[in-house]
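@channel sequence for tomorrow's demo:
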Amino acid sequence: MLKTPPPPYSRTNVDRIRPEDRAPSEIPILTRNCYESLTTSGDSQMANPSEWCKLAYWELQERVGPLFPVDSPFINVFGNVSERLDGWSLGELGLQNHKATESVLKTRAKIRLGVTLSRELGGSVWLYNRSDQPVFVSSLYLENGLGGPGPIRVPAEHCLCIHAPGGLQTYGWENFNCQGPMGDPNAIRVSFVKGWGTKYSRRDITSCPCWIEILLAPCR
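C-alpha cells (generated this afternoon):
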C-alpha cells in the first residue's frame, strides 16, 4: 500500500502565483511548490493528534456520503486514481450519487490526486493541490487576510495556508446543518476545477460540480 508522507514543508522556497494563474478578482498571494513540500520526510509535529475537522463532500447542491472525521495531522482527499492511497476517496463516494450530471462526472474524473490538508503545530491549516487542475478555496481567514470575499485560485502543484488561529475564523461543526449546503457559514470550502463568485458564471459554490467543506472542530 502506497502512503504519502506528512507534508512538513520548507519555509525557505516561496513563489508567487503568476498573474495569469489568478482570477480577475484575486490579488497576489504567497504559495509554495507542492511537490517540494511533500517530498520531505519529517515526522509529524502534532504532539497529541485528535479530531480537528470533519469533511463533507458535495456535488452541486447534494451532499454525498457521511461526514468524515479527521484525527490525523494530514489527510489526502482524492478522486479516481489507479494507486492505492490512504485518505478520503471522492471517487468512491461519488458512486453513491445516481443522479450525477454530466458536468459532475467530468469534474469528478479530473480530481485524481486531489488535495492534501495538513494541520500544523499551532493550529494552522494548509492545503496542498496535488492534482493537475486548479482548486478554489474560500474561508473567513482568506477573506479577511486578502481584503474581500471570493475564492482564491490555487494552481496545480501549489499550496496555501487556508486557516490560522486568531484569523477571525470561528468554530463549530457540532452545529452543522447536514440537511442543506453551506449550513455552517464559517466552514472552509474547496471546489475542484471550477470556480465561483462574481467573476465566474457560477455565482455560488452550490453551482460547482464537486466541492468539499472543511468543518473545523472547536478549540481544545
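heads up for whoever presents: The mean pLDDT is 74.
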